[in-house]
Amino acid sequence: MKKTLITAAVAGMVAAAPAFADLTFSALSYRTGPYAANGIPFADGYQDYFTLLNERDGGIGGEKINLVECETGYNTEKGVECYESTKGEGALVYQPLSTGITYQLIPKATADGIPVHSMGYGRTSAKNGEVFRNIFNYPANYWDGASVAVKYLLGENGGSLAGKKIALVYHNSAYGKEPIRTLEEAAKKHGFELSLLPVDHPGQEQKSQWLQIRRDRPDYVLMWGWGVMNQVAIQEAVNIRFNMENFIGIWWSGSENDVLPAGDGANGYKALTFHNVGDDFPVFDDIQKYVVDSGKAAGAGDQIGTALYNRGLYAAMLAAEAAKTAQGIHGVSAITPAQMRDGMEALEITEAKMASLGLPGFGPSFNVSCQNHGGDGMVAVAQWDASAKSWGLITGFEQSDQDILNPLIEEDSAAFAAENGITPGCN
Amino acid sequence: MFYREAGDFKTSYQEDNQTFPIKFDRYRYYAVLFVAFAVIPFMINDYWVNAIFLPFLIYSIAAIGLNILVGYTGQVSLGTGGFMAVGAYAVYKLMTAFPEVSILIHVVLAGGITAIVGMLFGLPSLRIKGFYLAVATLAAQFFLVWLFNRVPWFYNYSASGQISAPERTVAGIPVTGANTEAWAPYLVCLVFVTLSALIARNLTRGAVGRRWMAIRDMDIAAEIIGVNPLTAKLTAFGVSSFFVGIAGALFFAVYLGAVEVGEAFGINKSFLVLFMIIIGGLGSIFGSFAGAAFLVLLPVFLKNVLVGTLGWPTDLAAHLEFMIVGGLIITFLIAEPHGLAQLWRVAKEKLRLWPFPY
User: Fold this and answer.
1) pTM for this structure?
2) ipTM of the predicted structure?
3) Per-residue pLDDT averaged across A416-427, rounded?
4) Cβ B47–A84 below 8 Å, yes or no?
């Protein structure tokens, strides 16, 4: 039995022998499982942008793009399988959209010399490019998110949070635990009281957490949730009549899928974001023309313009721009993962560049350097309008509190360097 | 024609009692060992090791462990995921506390620690049986996962609560961490699998195993003929957890390299290993391998056929995968309720007579 299975597996694998295409991008997506509701729009946006480049511009720098999708189901074991199988096809960069898988890939991808771009997730201290040579997390990370949330609340309260109570409802995993350190530092600095309420995977059961919130009456609730946990949390908050104005989610808790089930009750819910919302950008006309109308849209094609679709699109845009930069630096069009890394490290996103791509004002402008793999940490706050069923930015892009974050990043990356015997440096 | 006993004469008790008494069977076993140790290490790459061989070998150890408890002793356990977590966290603490000691020793020690924890949670089995015991072990599963998430000492106070395996070497060759050659972790796991299977096979053939099976078949009758249920059940829990702990330690240190307890060792893992032994065959070492192969290799195989060869969308393929694997499980269990091991036994019986059945 064992032998026949192995033989059969061999046959299947041989038939699936990788075909080396010009520029291979991997999409470790999840369209199934408890996080699918959030995974699908991101994967669609990511795929559609590359389809657009292929259809409209003939790829990047004259090289066609070959996008290899692999289903991870947000599961680390499947993530490993996906990484190994797409690595064989020469993938240029990995964007796994899962903090757990990112943690797994950090040492592996570094050893293999392939860059990882964990945009707005993953290990925050990867911002220190001297230690994490192959890992990028521009334009913003969790600690930026936590810091800007606190900054926003400071603004709401006339510059002082002393004596206020803030509760953090978080996914009990590496992802959800990331902001705790920053919030604890901020609590010390600004004198608010922080309470921590973990929610276990997948997060369908949160009655006790929200009961505690009803009892403790915190002034504000922050949420680090993902997948079905978001919908449940927002519904529970509506059930205990928590004021939505005082409920702020991280960018992963701010998609249409999260607020729509709660209906009108979710009106006024706020979420952080590091890019713009809506489909009022010229690039969407091109997507309609080249991708949707020609029947090449990814998935069901019904996600265009949603918050997570835009994020997938943004991730693909940053990857494509980095590939262009890499082609410029090395003077070749068929770049390797190592050259892609150089391109990501030299990436410059300016307002003019975004406008030329049909995305004026879509995100902050930033420069990546060896010392800074994380951008400037510019984050805005968006608010949900339940009657119009749309998100709208209520603040501009603000920078996080670098005084708190830089020492923390320094400390955490130094610990990682010591653990793994890495000498920080730029060559 | 194959599996012929005629002409295969045994001249000593030792020969008569060996694990594979039929010559053809024995040579097949040697051939498998030879291929596994001397051929595969030269042929594999990262994909084969990380996507196929490591999960298969490690789940085989876990399945052997659980099979001792469920298949041989009849004590249903749903705590496998929790016990694997004990192995993983034990090896992590040992690796980081004593970096100069060999990782191989740490893995065995982690198995020992898990054995102690397993015996502790096995104590209720002296009073409760069947489904009630399953619920008690379920409590172990949830308690252990909660414990490793809750107490920062277990994950060395890291900010994310993740544990990640630092690089450790065996004879100067890295077997954990990122800079491993494909064959090194494979060989480490293979050695552990081979030894586990040998030990388990010989334990179940000996006095200890007979006591376990007596308890399984009827505990009161076993007690009357002089089997001490306390020692029989607790040794079963101990030995079973020892293997499960080794599997957990290898799963974390060699295979994944970084784990989150809730995600990697949740209740799903307990069910997965339980399904492996049910499909493979309860009370059979071969069944543990067959079940692990079935549940590890089939999804990968289906994914490669559906997405790689046929070019279907990944989500459709993932959903179909569930349906096909589920359908096959039902078909197998209807066709042969005693699992793949029984199918193999029947096939062997047929092959003894083939091509002239009577």
Assistant:
1) 0.91
2) 0.88
3) 84
4) yes
